[in-house]
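call fold(seq) -> tokens
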Amino acid sequence: MTAHRRGFTLLELTVGLAVGGIAITAGYATLTTLVDRRGRVEEVTRETSRAFAVRSSLTDWLAGAKLETRGSSASFRGVHGAHGDLPDDELTFLTSSRTPLGDGATIVRLYVARTAAGSHAGLSAEFIEWQGTRRQTVLLDSAVAGLGIRYASGVFASQGWVATWSSTTVLPGGVQVTLHAAPHDSLAALLRVPIVVPLEGGR
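ret:
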């Protein structure tokens, strides 16, 4: 008796290829989704790390704020302002905390930089060596379009918040910094939470 070899029919081959194609397509779609999701996770992680670094830097610089009475006095000066519908405050102070210029006492100026056309360029910090000539400006976050700063004090009345501060002899009891994005712009969630820093020796 002769063995009869049976191959695939055209219909079986077509069905097999179709099923295989569906499986490959589903696998590719799943792989693409996983890669996209991983990319998004990495992006969020980078964004959160940058936001944490900005918050930490602002907190450290403010926590090290002091008034220098030897030689020329350094002032703690906060200016209240507005640009369009957003706050446009500015703060200049002397800090003993580490800055991009190093460990020495440094004057820090926090402000929102603007282009010649008046649009925002982002939250910036200017550093000036207290007893030296070095200076440097750093863009902290380009998404920040508004800067609101308040000062906690009980010097003039009962404990509360005031919009401006300027003194060479008295520090406020604390500072609250609120960062704002331009309308329809994004700002890391960690930077939308106000930064509150108590000041040592402040009142």
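The chain has two helices and 13 strands.
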